[in-house]
Request: fold
Amino acid sequence: MSHVARRTSVKEPARILVVGGGYVGMYTALRLQRKLKQELRRSAVEVVVVDPDPYMTYQPFLPEAAAGSISPRHVVVPLRRVLPLCKVVVGEVTALDHTARTATVTTPATEEDGTGGLQLPYDELVLAPGSVSRALPVPGLAEGGIGFKTVEEAIGLRNHVLEQLDIASSTRDPAIRDAALTFVFVGGGYAGVEALAELEDMARYAARYYHNVEPGDMKWILVEATGRILPEVGTAMGQYAVRELRARNIDVRLETRLESYEARIAVLSDGSRFPARTLVWTAGVKPHPVIAASGLPRTGRGRLKCTAALRVEGVEHAWSAGDAAAVPDLTAERPATPDEPRRECAPNAQHAVRQARVLAENIAAVLRGGPVVDYAHKYAGSVASLGLHKGVAHVYGRRLKGYPAWFMHRVYHLSRVPTFNRKARVLAEWTLAGLFKREIVSLGSLEHPRAEFELAAGTGRHNEPS
Reply:
């Protein structure tokens, strides 16, 4: 007897555990909520989503959030609001025993009471924890680098950049000034290029409000280990992007690596040394550690081996998609020999959202005793922003650049951001941003909200009479 049947026989709902509330996790749960609405309402099925955050982050909007074009709260989608028929658990899966079909989950409550993790049984498992930043063992990187994968990091970076302008404007030490006005970004993919382009745009605009800081005083450096940037948009558009960035006095260094960042000095493989108070690391990602802890079959790169139906290869009741999964691309040309592996789907949002839909429908079909289908989607292309009114795109074989590509970038991502509520709010913010000036306020104190009170209470900072 299957585990699903055994649980159902004692009137317990069949539990679908979704590990991760990102693209795949949220969209899978959203689709399951629609496909299994009747079962969920009569408690025949239960969908549990476990994620450390109670929201899904729409990562393509992080650069615009960092530049102040979009409010941070509109970059995230609250899971409980969009998944009313699902159970959302704010916590982290630390261990999986798929043989017994149980997951160990730690939550803020388990950390407080010291009871250890909760043992959560399940019938069907969806592993979609996404990826984490891949930090190489570069001396000084862990101590001084800044990531760019979360909304907190994006807003922290915005505050940090504006703080550097304040430091440069107020210091008389030329070494401190130069280091404050030097910004190094490592990684020439979407995250690195879009973050640099948007923040350079913002900083150049902000400089007009500083009497002693000119845009030409700032050094913006992009470091990429390969010979091109933005490989997803094609060679020609990648070369155009390099020319566009260099025309803005951004120093693009190809086939160059970061050797060290000790004492706030960025040392590159070409021998260059840049004293810099800002180093942003966007040089790749790796599968979430829970993938390795699951004990399920993995590829050499650490992703789960999956079939085209999005099942974990050779394992019953386990599914995956997105960054965590190596899914064969059925639309790619077949390999020359049977021994060669088929090309895998790229780990990007375009595939993740579509895979989530198929994954949810396959799980619903299994629970109802129906057949599963394979995932197949021909890659449509990519769009990337290079700052306000600038961009590159390679979509369905057509190449666009400048304003048309930037406009397509906005239209595409507006259509993809979840919920009508978020679409309307983002569109409203873009419209207002076109009518009014940029906001250039740094709210760095948001990251340490109790600092003011602690100073006042502990040190008498304001010299109150005793």
Summary: Residues 151-170 form the longest helix (20 residues).
